[in-house]
Write a structure and sequence with these properties.
The complex is a heterodimer. By secondary structure, chain A is an alpha+beta fold. Chain A is 31% helix and 25% strand. Helix content of chain B is 29%, strand content 24%. The chains are: A alpha+beta, B alpha+beta.
């Protein structure tokens, strides 16, 4: 029982979608968050327009250096896509821990990005893989970095009449190590209390590329670019991660909330980063 | 699911092997309807002209209601009426046991938690009722809320007059001072345990209908139809004969539907009475979480004296339970804390005191285990702590002090033959391969720096049925009718709440009558058929309703045997009845043919059964005597793995042994043990209720109130000890609650073992555990 009424459109083309948007409908995908928010009154909408039946918004396109995921592609479809296994294993690690089978059958990566929760596991990976969105409207399409698109918790730069076509994620350099660590209140169907995503490429013991993204420890996902750059060309030595963990504390501003305290979030992120070597994995060869 | 089950049994009576149903794995008699979505739950009921009721809840934890303005709501389309305290014809009073819970807070009176009702909106649609509830304007004078046991104990702000603190119960045995004086070591500790929500699948709800007998009939989700009957009669000022309660199929209870359904039924019945129409009142999940009872948060202080050789000499306990805003069932819940706080062992010198404190939070009440899991967590933690200090094996330490038939409990009750305490310890030891298990875990811990395993053990006893405090309620009836086609109708006063009651009753009826189980129909309870049978709580239904059914069926079987014997011209002793067939040396007939013959010969084929508890010798003033009819025992061994980086705990292995007297339905017993474990594990590791500083519940749905899922469910090895209880039907005691009770203690002990530091609080959320781990790291460095 939702207890509130709204119009619901299911356009089958992007053209039809634009017509519904011009009537004031909000574009939606899997609606796994939207329906919850509407029921509790946290979100009001007169009309919703679902992208999930639009063929041109489905699927995954592979290029040499990037993968483009269309807006209506569900998490389950990502998990079943064999080509992603070696291109973006960190994405699949994160997606496999989102919600439950039922949620993953409906939920989408683009939806997770628009939701702009600092706890969004998909959003964290999009930050880490330098995600870029294709945003369209009657005026045409534009591209925007995910990091610029997210303005704050639940706040994004999407104007009325616009919808997202796709997100493009860059494939990390060859032989990168990666880790996605999610801390939740239970092992499935739980929102992240804190999460850490890392990409690391070493060359003869020297760091060539290092990226880290942290979830649920600030108003948005944190990607400390300056800190990342400072690590490049350093030797991979004992104690490096411990130093990194200490420095990371300056980049996060966790809060006490219903799920965990600021103290715990800080402490657990620190301990995970200190012990990163336990979590880092290599990409399985094709 | 990777949960494997294995059932081992010792002490089986040969009788079981000759039975058709008792002790066998049985399919649920109502299972197919539930699986197919055909079973009727309260929200499935729709009646001509039915109206919808929505309560207006207090927005404040503690406030004086100055005035209630209903004018705007009354003018909203679809609203039929708005009910306030002045519309109550009877008493404005809901609480079971303690009577301090107004159904609707009157202007000038106080709301004592956010779930107190101020008004009820009745409308033609649910949407209109919801909108109407938002439009009722209540003017409050907000008072300072009391939100913790510590604040309540200060007693400067009173939730109820004259004081927040009530001393409820005591145990006094032997000479406590002498006991400590004779001890070589004395241990002292304080433990804290939080709330638990029942998380039944189906929220609370009722449909009240003005009936054709000039009274009110209430259908709904409940455990205790006779509580509901009394509450409705009290609020309406009706005679009990004008109030009829019919339980609908109920989606789980766990104690949460003991008294609370009365608090939903009474407002629904009042609305039906005032409007003359059927009225449905079903809570949303958020309303249900905010308003309805929880397990008591409890603080336990323990002092235990032991000899060097590990003999327990003295136990002193002080227990404080958070009752929330209204007393409801707290005195009887905390009575069980009183009886179990000093543990499950032989000890001659005992002193226990139990207090309840009022706070401006949700009234706490019945929950599987009823005030005992909390105190067993404390006591069994102490047992591990002591064993570790004495340098003795934890299992051996327990066995040394465990109870045997003829021993006295902590309240001086001499135990009967059905005392399988030591058998459960030995069975759990065997199931877990105890000494190898300890070695295996030690090896793992040697090899791993960031992950540590731990082994926990807990040993408990549990008083089956209501016990001395509930003696006047502890009786149950049954009405059994055999139709002329041989079909059997069974009416009882106990309720099916998902635990398997109907199947157990059908098995007992089928076994006793000699009829096939598929010919037995167990009806939804209806207060107009069976006299007050007490509540479906305290793991008592198999014992009480089961005995009542057995007694009625024994009389009916005798009559049918005599009729058949007379017809066959043989002695009744030559007649055998089994599996739907009557036979004797000269011939046989089906059960249906004999029933038809009885019908033709005017042999009455309906009968009532009644089983009442013997009086118990408990003396509340002295705090000594027989507390319960009998006790169930259990020993549980748990293996956990702790992630030292995050503080996350995974329960990996469970070895659990339960003394059940006799398993009636083997599959249902296993199901109870698995389900009870998972619920207890949730309480131990992840479930908590959080309030903000104004006394508003923040964890009001299952996105923030986290319970375990199948992913957290471990591997089980389950053993049953069957030492029949002479008063039990076929020897059965009870399993509903003992399935959960040892779990919080066993899990906590396993975690403490893994990290090398004592857990003193539940739940062991990662946050708390990480604080212990970091303390431990600091100590070691």
């Amino acid at each position: 029982m939702i207890g509130t009424s709204f119009s619901f459109y299911t356009p089958s083309t992007e053209r039809e979608l634009l017509i519904t948007l011009s009537k004031g409908a909000l574009p939606v995908a899997g609606m796994t968050d939207v329906m919850v928010k509407i029921r509790t009154g946290k979100m009001k909408a007169k009309a919703l327009s679902s992208v999930s039946r639009i063929e041109s918004l489905k699927g995954v396109q592979m290029a040499d250096d990037a993968v483009t995921i269309m807006a209506a592609t569900t998490y389950t479809e990502l998990l079943e896509n064999k080509g992603l296994k070696w291109r973006l294993p960190i994405l699949l690690d994160a997606v496999s821990e989102i919600g439950s089978t039922q949620i993953r059958n409906r939920g989408t990566l683009v939806g997770n990005i628009v939701n702009a929760s600092p706890a969004g596991d998909g959003l964290l990976v999009a930050y880490l893989l330098d995600g870029n969105l294709e945003i369209c409207s009657n005026e045409g399409c534009r591209s925007v970095d995910v990091r610029d698109f997210v303005k704050g918790p639940g706040q994004v730069a999407l104007a009325p009449g616009e919808y997202i076509r796709s997100v493009t994620l860059k494939i990390p350099p060859k032989d990168s190590l990666y880790a996605f660590v999610k801390v939740g209140q239970r092992s499935a169907m739980a929102i992240s209390v804190a999460s850490v995503g890392v990409l690391l490429r070493l060359n003869a013991g020297t760091i060539e590329d290092f990226r880290i993204a942290l979830g649920s420890v600030a108003p948005t996902v944190v990607r400390p670019l300056e800190l990342e750059r400072n690590l490049v060309s350093l030797k991979m030595e004992d104690g490096l991660f411990k130093t990194l963990a200490g420095e990371l504390m300056n980049y996060i501003s966790p809060i006490d909330d219903i799920r965990a305290s600021a103290w715990y979030r800080r402490e657990v992120v620190k301990r995970i980063v200190e012990n990163l070597s336990v979590y880092l994995k290599g990409v399985e060869k094709q | 699911m990777d949960a494997e089950k294995e059932v081992k049994t010792i002490t089986r009576e040969p009788e079981t092997f000759q039975m058709n149903y008792i002790g066998k794995p049985l399919r649920r008699v109502e299972g197919l309807e539930k699986a197919m979505g055909k079973a009727k739950y309260v929200d499935d009921l729709k009646m001509e002209g039915m109206l919808y009721a929505k309560p207006v809840f207090s927005r404040h934890a503690h406030a004086i209601v100055k005035s209630i303005d209903t004018s705007e709501a009354e003018n909203y389309p679809g609203i039929v009426c708005i009910v306030t305290s002045k519309d109550i014809p009877g008493e404005n009073e809901l609480g079971e046991v303690v009577h301090d819970y107004p159904m609707l807070v009157a202007p000038g009176d106080k709301t004592r938690f956010e779930g107190d009702m101020v008004a009820i909106v009745v409308a033609r649609t649910l949407e209109a009722a919801k909108k109407g509830a938002e439009l009722v304007r209540v003017d409050y004078e907000v008072l300072k809320p009391v939100l913790s046991i510590d604040e309540a104990l200060k007693d400067d702000v009173h939730v109820h007059e004259p004081s927040n603190v009530k001393h409820f119960h005591r145990v006094r045995k032997g000479d406590i001072a002498a006991g400590f004086a004779q001890s070589d070591y004395i241990f002292e500790n304080t433990f804290e345990v939080g709330y638990q929500e029942h998380a039944y699948l189906e929220p609370q709800g009722m449909v009240a209908v003005p009936d054709i007998d000039g009274g009110i009939t209430v259908y709904g989700s409940m455990q205790c139809p006779y509580y509901v009957q009394s509450a409705v009669a009290r609020v309406l000022g009706f005679e009990l004969s004008r109030v009829r309660i019919i339980q609908t199929e109920t989606g789980g209870g766990f104690g949460g539907k003991e008294d609370v359904p009365s608090y939903i039924a009474a407002p629904a019945a009042l609305c039906a009475y005032l409007t003359g129409k059927p009225v449905k009142l079903v809570l949303s999940r958020e309303e249900d979480l905010r308003m309805t009872s929880k397990r008591h948060p409890i603080r336990v202080w323990l002092k235990v004296g032991v000899k060097k050789d590990g003999t327990l000499m003295a136990v002193e306990a002080k227990v404080w339970g958070d009752m929330g805003a209204h007393g409801t069932l707290s005195p009887i819940v905390l009575w069980r804390s009183n009886i179990h706080a000093a543990g499950s062992y032989r000890v001659d010198n005992v002193k226990v005191d139990v207090w309840g404190v009022y706070t401006n939070k949700v009234p706490t009440g019945a929950f599987r285990g009823f005030g005992s899991p909390q105190v067993f967590f404390a006591f069994e933690s102490m047992m591990d702590e002591i064993a570790s200090k004495l340098g003795v094996d934890r299992l051996e330490f327990r066995r040394k002090n465990a109870l045997s038939p003829g021993d006295a409990t902590v309240t001086g009750q001499i135990l009967d033959e059905s005392t399988g305490a030591i058998e459960t310890l030995e069975q759990a030891e065997k199931l877990s391969d105890w000494s190898n298990l300890l070695k295996r875990v030690e090896d793992f811990n040697q090899k791993n720096r960031l992950r540590k395993k731990g082994v926990g053990i807990a040993h408990i006893h549990y008083g089956v049925s209501l016990g001395a405090m509930g003696n006047p309620l502890d009786a149950s009836g049954a009405f059994v009718q055999i139709h002329k086609d041989g079909r059997v109708g069974v009416h009882i006063g106990g309720t099916e709440i998902g635990q398997g009651m109907k199947t157990a009753m059908a098995a007992i009826a089928a076994e006793t009558l000699g009829q096939k189980i598929e010919m037995i129909k167990v009806y939804q309870p209806d207060t107009s058929y069976v006299p007050d049978s007490g509540p479906t709580v305290a793991s008592r239904t198999t014992l009480f309703s089961g005995n009542a059914v057995r007694k009625a069926c024994e009389v009916l079987r005798k009559r049918m045997v005599e009729t058949f014997a007379d017809f066959m011209k043989v002695e009744p002793s030559k007649v055998k009845v089994t599996n739907g067939k009557f036979s004797c040396p000269v011939g046989e007939m089906t059960f249906g043919e004999v029933a038809a013959m009885c019908d033709r010969n005017n042999v009455p084929l309906s009968e009532t059964g009644w089983f009442a508890s013997p009086r118990l010798s408990w003396d509340p003033g002295k705090g000594y005597g027989d507390a319960y009819l009998t006790y169930a025992f259990a020993t549980q061994i748990v293996v956990v793995e702790v992630d030292l980086i995050t503080g996350a705990v995974k329960v990996e292995e469970v070895y659990t042994s339960h003394d059940v007297g006799r398993a009636i339905n083997r599959d249902a017993v296993i199901g109870q043990i698995q389900g009870g474990f998972v619920q207890g594990m949730g309480y131990a590791l992840m479930e908590f209720i959080k309030y903000d500083e104004h006394g508003r519940m923040m964890t009001e749905n299952f996105n923030t109130y986290i319970i375990p899922t199948i992913h957290e469910t471990p591997r089980f090895r389950i053993g049953l000890v069957e030492k029949p209880f002479e008063l039990g039907p076929y020897g059965a005691k009870g399993i509903g609650e003992p399935s959960l009770i040892p779990t919080p203690a066993a899990v906590a002990n396993a975690v403490s073992h893994a990290i090398g530091k004592r857990v003193k609080r539940l739940p062991i959320i990662p946050e708390y555990l990480l604080s212990l781990i970091t303390q431990r790291e600091a100590e070691v460095v």
